[in-house]
Design goal:
Six copies of one chain form a homohexamer. Chain A is an all-alpha fold and 326 residues long. Helices cover 44% and strands 2% of the residues of chain A. Chain A has ten helices and three strands; from the N terminus they run βααααααααββαα. The N and C termini of chain A lie far apart (45 Å).
Chain lengths: 326, 326, 326, 326, 326, 326
């Protein structure tokens, strides 16, 4: 089972100019064959299905642990899409249904507006839903690791291309981070295969062949050595990843390491403002807020919400909701 | 992001007689429209996409927190299927490819044997993959909660029917637990809607109308008051669920409660033995074990694997692998 | 728009021995590529999309009118499946969840039991859902008619094969009727093409080449001249089908005719009894009946239900529900 | 079975400026998960599969009867799309294939032009086909009604958003009407659940929370009391809906009523003109018209087509076909 | 089995202005229900599954042989799409990841850029993958031929519409050729049905009703009599097509003929230049070229590549790669 | 383009006892994610989309050439399935529709009987259609080769498991051959990657780890050195495969070689007899044979069919058709 932590793995910028067409493209990293739902659910199913895990514990610990990180990647992509969609509907006259979505006709993924509340969907860049055929879990350890190495390769390809297509600051912050972390996973699987078979897949690295240090948005993460470090995403479990994830980084020669904290510090997410035109969280969000406030009081909770959000958010919501309501 | 814990939410029995046809049926609870992947990913996406969460924190905390529990449900169903498939392939002559899957021709889900390693798949009872169209995330809080109430209703229906179809002890242990916990989620969403709108959905409870106390496998969990309790699946977050999840249980009048521990104690899972006929984890699993042992030593890890598994498992693996290799 | 009539187009036998594997096969005639949902929705969409219909009225009237008949075919197939599934679950101990579906594990379409209430589904014989890709509506009249002729050919093929595979009396009554009526539609489209282009598609008839008079279950319908007659499924509209549907039957030379009543007399359907093991219509159907009775009284309705059902049904329900409850 | 009537349930405006991008969006209301094919086929399958209907007649009559109305909604959405697509292809030089679709490259749903004849498709706003997984028919009456209430909620959401996105007069006429009628169905299912269980789902109404009286295109229908009235869509059947559909409207307090005519008077549809660039009904539609005229004569039909179309249409066709041919 | 020949069936122009939106439309002819993958795989499966072929050899030879031609059609459509996509990504600054795909956001099929390397995909114009449900192989010869006639009709419709929508020279060269060759296949299946049953399907020809001689891009092929000629695509086999493919062409009266060479002379394809922004064949294609050159030398191959490409290509690659690298 | 040759790549046994459940399992090797349609179409699309092929000719030649072999593998799997299905329907009373498919109710893939003519389908072992999402064609040479290596690994896994599940002689002959040839392709892609990057993927070989020499049905092919040899499938093209496919075999040390004939000699296929119960090729196959004979005569063809079939087949057809008709 899991515990859930109200922080995201890296900071994302607050909403700025909306980019609905860009958000549609970023969906490839969420619900595409090589998106984060795929990495998350592939490794998760492989870990659930692992047989004789005590006999192969270092490899089990590796797969299960990377799976846990991928949950956070799904979350990051979703938050990025939500950020990019914020402000896309018009809020000029919020008191009656109007043509608030007029400018979005023919732009981006129509389900972002017609089915969802300007929010992320388990779909790819074509609007096709993620499906279970994207999961490979043969149970054969060498095969599953070969698959995972290939999956990370395809995922890296997708991230680079989304980087090239979408310049929105949230998309760039996302892909910069994911490219570095995806590289760590690619290495981890190559290393595991090498230790099992002797095959030197490190030499395929990086694939596609663009070193992350050439990418400005990767650099802060490289400087924090995020390209060398595996987190365990557990206080107590997955101790044996150290038996696999070590040795030199194939590009830089630096030593790989298992972090001595369970997961990245990360940051609280922004509290994205309502989008009343799509009824998220309601056509009259202030009514919900009043009810919630009353319930919090009845339950003896402090006057301010207990959950942390990104510092910038208070102002943000005020401004944007103010606009929406006026 | 999440932390991952190497325990499952409730104990499952060790492998006994294999039941491949039953395992195919249990897949409905994993990859079906109303299976646990659906509950997990519906609530997860709704929580990722929640707008103005500070304004509606109790409701956000509720959805995000139940999402975390559902990850553990997916895990439980997967473990159940794996348990039921253990021993289904013949291990009589393990040294060369043979007709080890002959008796499984035309039985159950062929992908359990031809594609996977006698392991769980993100598919339903018909072998169709789970897909993202099963996720509803409109952003409108009242609608999303209405959906979730309905989803839990459909999920309860599926669990009851799998209970009636499959008598394997693992399947019964699973459905007994899930029916109780699913009931809690059904209540939670009904309660949230009541607080938001006044509509008394509690009166629809239970639906389908079989009280859990009539089901023997539910009783131990009822006795432990698992039908009254919401876990927070977080040490620090989701504090405001208390503003929603309280009041009397609609069937028994007992008071609902938020647990003062983050999650159920649960139990370590069994370490399911290799199934060499399907190459899981390998056609010669002992070779992988040797490599792993060597790597553990090189990494300075203790001689015994550090990860905990169910106590019965050591003997289990010894016996079953012994059979497989002889 | 439509009016709906509480009669089915031909009599079906009451439930007898259940045949869940047969019911799974009959689904091909419902949700298969060449099933009745396909004929119904192909012609319906073509009729909705017909352009310049005043200029081509006889052809429009033909397509729209056959579409109306196909709704009744979908209904017939559904009723047949429901009949074949009645009694498939055990009713021995109806007061608590039990193993009432045990004997159905691995038999037929698992969704008949795990998702539905022993009822028909919009799926084919493999359990795959019908989908909109099965609809062809090019707008080009000659092409659409060519498609329809081919669709009826494939439909006839499917009906003959289901006839050969499933001997259950309901399935045989169904296929006997549908083969005769499908033949009329095949003729109608061939005739329309002949009148438009001169191409003599009648010579392809029948295809597959088994004359219906060789099939015992077709004979009563042939004797009632159902192979020669087109119904208009409207009191007032579709008058111009007479401009297309006339001339000799290609096998027998008899004259084709447009019926002078809007639709077949048909018969009321059986009122199929509850199946409490799958909660249809409830785990305790008598409670629903009581509520309904009370509501009817409050509304000033007569004591007996106003809707007609097949005469045999009263006894049938009594017997079967009696069994279910005892 | 059904009878089919050559009228649509409400008037739609004639073609004006084409809006292919808008037509692609409106497809969500046809083939989307919450579109009219879903409401139509969900209730239709539930009615076909209803068990013990004599025991629960008022509820059966309700579901079967609303199903019949939904057929007409599918028809209305299709007609709206066809209207919006009329004129989208160029008709400047109709005598040889040209670049008549050039301006439609990259605009809207490409299947409207490449696969269909500028006509409606069983697809959603992303061009994905409707499929049978969208149908829920559990057989459990309370569950099916809960589903239906939720389905109407999602449908209302979709209609409101299409309203906001698409300003074309046909789309606005459509959504104005459907919002009012969908509200009636939402009420009907809430009422049924209340009578069965006591749960007051009326309090969830409306959801999403935009009262229809704020929507100008709804008002004429409200003035005609269409928000209070259920039609029976049958001369003789479904008498017992009166046992369920009564009591006050939750927003206005006005009394609900069952109409004393079987269905809305409605209006004849427009006869949409040919679109020769996409061969609908032909590349040379006048040839088909000649053949049809000859056949009508041979069949002894009156000189003028017997089928009624909207009065404006004669002129419309003349003008538009004239343009197309010149 | 097959031999593969490094020539395409007709010349295509070299890359010119890229047309990504047009390329997305042309995908309908590749992966659409009526695209070339469908014709290719329908006839291929029918030929694999043909029973009693010695008894029906002329018909077997016809189907198997046309299947072989369709492989070349798939190839032609793919090459066309690749040509149209060449140059669509920016190559201004090729040494680091940049915004090279920025202008393609929201244009055409996003998978052309995010998943593929500006290359063809087995998808239709909506980005939906081709699937096996598009194959009809009933085994009944008359039915299969009826299907094939209809399939060619739908394919012709699609080609005409793509012709009208896309003016790019490669798309026009493609559709001009395919319309002529598709006409031959339509005739061949009509002829086969006529010989088997007497039904004169030739009279449905052409459908849709635009004679190819009205289409400028068809004329060169008509002048080369490509509308009259069937190739055998085999040196030795399929001799018996002559028993079916003969008689007069229904439009012109000219005699049909079986070519005395196995296949069209065709032309070498262009060697399309790298697109480094999408890493095709690499981010630094010159490195691959160096390795290849070294390997060729080691294997004793001549200095110049042995495979033939279109004459214009050498210059083309030089220019375009030069641009890409500078 | 291709030429097609009327021989299959290796001999298959004639029909014997039918095995419909086995045939359903073998479908995984045809339409499964790792089946032969996937290998064929992956390499085919990659070859169509190859950019700068003159610069990387040895790699292009390799991919294009293996693609050609895979067409023959698809053919072999189809022929195997057809062989296994022959005789599955009853032929006792062939003159009228009967219960000839009764024993096949609930057995194997229902589409083999209800949709097809006891013939192969583009579906997997669960009856789900192959789809274009199974094709990976990124354009990045290193990635595409990595994918292909992984794809061959998954394909080998599937073949081994089908071997273990299905003992029918045709299935065993098939898998014995495909395992040897698949090994060659796995090697070829590993070798290509090694030459491009230095990564020694040969060390992953074989994966899954069952050497083919342990499999009796592989041995005859090993003895013929089929595990060492690449065919070019072209008289003139693909000369440069020799630059990649050389060096020692990783298991045996024997030298890899490019064959000096274009393709395996292979064998003519059996002419599988009619199955009149499913109308393949007709309900009265002798009528088709008569027509064909007449047409052959009119065309001046020799009295005996010119196409070669396996020698055993003449007797086979006589016997089986005799049975079918008597």
């Amino acid at each position: 089972m899991i515990r859930r932590i109200e922080r995201i793995q890296t900071e994302l910028p607050p909403p700025s100019d909306p980019d609905p067409a860009g958000a549609a493209a970023v969906q490839e990293l969420l619900g595409g064959k090589f998106g984060e739902m795929s990495t998350f659910l592939n490794y998760t199913f492989q870990s659930f299905n692992f047989r004789n895990k005590q006999g192969a514990r270092p490899f089990y610990d590796l797969v299960a642990n990377i799976a846990a990180e991928e949950f956070g990647h799904v979350e990051l992509v979703a938050k990025t899409i939500n950020t990019m969609l914020t402000g896309a509907s018009s809020t000029r006259n919020g008191k009656a249904p109007s043509a608030a979505l007029r400018d979005l006709k023919g732009v981006g993924n129509p389900h972002h507006f017609l089915a969802g509340g300007q929010g992320a969907l388990p779909q790819n860049s074509q609007g096709r839903p993620w499906n279970g055929d994207y999961v490979f879990s043969s149970g054969d350890l060498v095969e599953d690791l070969t698959h995972n190495f290939f999956l990370e390769t395809g995922a890296r390809n997708g991230k680079l291309k989304v980087y090239e297509m979408v310049e929105h600051p949230a998309a760039r912050a996302l892909t910069g981070y994911l490219l570095v972390r995806g590289g760590v996973h690619q290495l981890a699987y190559a290393r595991a295969l090498e230790l099992l078979t002797g095959a030197d897949l490190m030499k395929l690295f990086p694939s596609p062949r663009i070193p992350t240090e050439k990418i400005p948005e990767c650099r802060p993460h490289l400087e924090r050595r995020e390209h060398l470090r595996l987190y365990r995403f557990s206080q107590e479990d997955f101790q044996e990843v150290t038996a696999v994830f070590r040795g030199p980084h194939p590009e830089t020669g630096e030593e790989l390491e298992v972090a001595d904290v369970p997961h990245p510090v990360g940051a609280p997410a922004h509290d994205l403002p309502p989008q009343p035109a799509v009824f998220a969280p309601d056509y009259a969000p202030e009514e919900i807020a009043e009810i919630a406030q009353k319930l919090r009081k009845q339950a003896g909770l402090p006057k301010e919400p207990t959950g942390q959000v990104s510092e910038e958010s208070a102002d943000l919501v005020e401004t944007l909701v103010g606009n929406a309501r006026s």
